[in-house]
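#lab-general

N.A. 3:47 PM
ok so I finally got the sequence cleaned up, no stray characters, all 102 residues accounted for. can someone with queue access submit it? mine expired

B.Y. 3:52 PM
send it over

N.A. 3:53 PM
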Amino acid sequence: MPSTADLVSDIHRARQAWQDAVQMLDFVDPEFLDYAIFHLNASERRFVALLGEARRKGVTAWVDEQLRPPVTNETVEHGLPMTEYEVGSCEPLHATPSRECD
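B.Y. 4:20 PM
back already:
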């Protein structure tokens, strides 16, 4: 069973292989189009399968405490916490206001 670091590394490599397969379609000789499509599908399936394995193991790309909902009008109306900027303000929430908005 691969470690979390190995799984993350495999996911990065699989994503790159999938992106390479997508780009291959732009330059493929018509005689190799079937191969390029097969390669693209196989690369995508491997990437998705590895993401599924990571999900089952609870591996994420972020810390749960850092996740916040996006700021919308509904966020303001319902009094929910803001993310990066208060609506109507040019200053980030974590910054001390230092000047007027331009």
